[in-house]
Specification:
Layout lengths: L5 E3 H8 L3 H9 L5 E4 L2 E5 H14 L1
Length: 59
């Protein structure tokens, strides 16, 4: 179970409007910190929101 401070891969994809492949690449390249929980990746919610704000500024 993932607590409220973390988001699932699907949630991050929706927030950042990216595919699962892209988000997994971000995690692999340490652009987004992730944690493995069994088969499921989770992402720190604050970090994802910071990434969203940065991408909004760049577009």
């Amino acid at each position: 179970m993932i607590d409220n401070d973390y988001l699932t891969l699907d949630e991050v994809c929706k927030i950042l409007d990216k595919t699962p492949t892209t988000i997994k690449r971000y995690a692999r390249e340490s652009l987004l910190t992730s944690e493995q929980h069994g088969e499921e990746l989770s992402f720190n919610k604050d970090e994802v929101m910071r990434c969203l704000r940065c991408s909004d500024r760049l577009s």
